[in-house]
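User: Assemble these into one structure.

Assistant: Restating your components, then the assembled model:
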Amino acid sequence: MISKRLLSILILLVLVLGSGWIWLSRVPDSVSARPESIPLRGHPAPDFTLQTLDGEALSLSDLRGKAVVLNFWATWCPPCQAEMPELQAAHEAYSRGGLVVLGVNQAENRATVQAFLDERQLTFPVVLDSQYEVSQLYQVNSLPTTFFIDRDGVIREIVIGQMNAALLKQQLRNIYP
Amino acid sequence: MVPSISIGPASLPTYPLLLLLGYFLGLWFAAKVAARRGLDPDHIYNMGFYAVIAGILVGRLGHVILYFPAYVADPLSILSPNMNAIQPWFAAAAALAVAIWYQRKYQIPIPGMLDALAGGALVLLAARALAEGLNGIHFGDPTMAPWAIYQWNVARHPVQYYELVGVLAMLAGFWALLRRLRPGFAALFAVAGYAGVRLLVDAFRAEAITVGDGYRVSQIIAWIVLLLALLAFYQAAKSEA
């Protein structure tokens, strides 16, 4: 074992140097008050503007004040297809109360996406990420990926992979109590 | 950043992948430590596997209980592979209960077992630090230092890799001192070492929970834990003398 003398010195050093280090490492007010806008839990969601299927521009910042379920998807992705009914159900149940389910389609043409939505009677808004710009901005590397954004525009949870109804309900509680 | 790797047509997220790898590497290392402590390494493997299986099953069961109507409507969704559909406290409680049950059933000496588990935990913590670095989680302060890395479009302290290096150094120290420390004290060394690493590196994190005049809570906790661990070493040395 280590000697008592050596341990006494160590304890004294940790006591003095440790408290000094903590004092030196304080976070200035100006820094702690400004969380960066990045696609991580607890951070403001990065803003973007994309075209809807109608050709209108839609920005995420337009939805400030509403809870947003931002779902990245593609028509060829089976888990995306499987969770669409749950997203549609959430849209139908909560859109009047201020929840927006926003689909971000990855790099498919307008006609393909429109046909998919029509066939499945999906009515929530969808924007087209034709150049993968927003997917890159949000570091989306696998589909589906869903960001749950609260009314203040802060990301509360990120779910990678297909959600079942229970998981969607659980996550909605965080942003749409 | 490397948030995912492509293997054939599949894109695998690196964060859960590294945590999984870290868990099994940690189990392997814990078994090595157990062998050095004269314990049967198979007990560590068994305990680790039972704990993780119990955690997953009970964690999912907790989710089913809490969101029962949703699961009644679609019973097959109980088998969903999405690991988010788990109640973490249920999972942690089940894993802990199984580990305690296993220890009691086979009368595994606690000090040696704690050493083994602490060694495994250091491996897992190293894997987590690497995963956070690759995903830009818990990133560092902006810096002009030549070793800065770009995360979220800003040159920053590679604080996750500072932690990784620190934990690996503690792991090397843990292994080197294992034979010289009494059973149970290697675990204390691991706790002290990790607390020391966090006390040092958390100074460079961009974001922190703070108290008072901007003091970082994680550093204060690490400082107290480090002091308590050193005091425990001191007490042991005193009683030996």
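The two ends of chain A are 55 Å apart (CA to CA).
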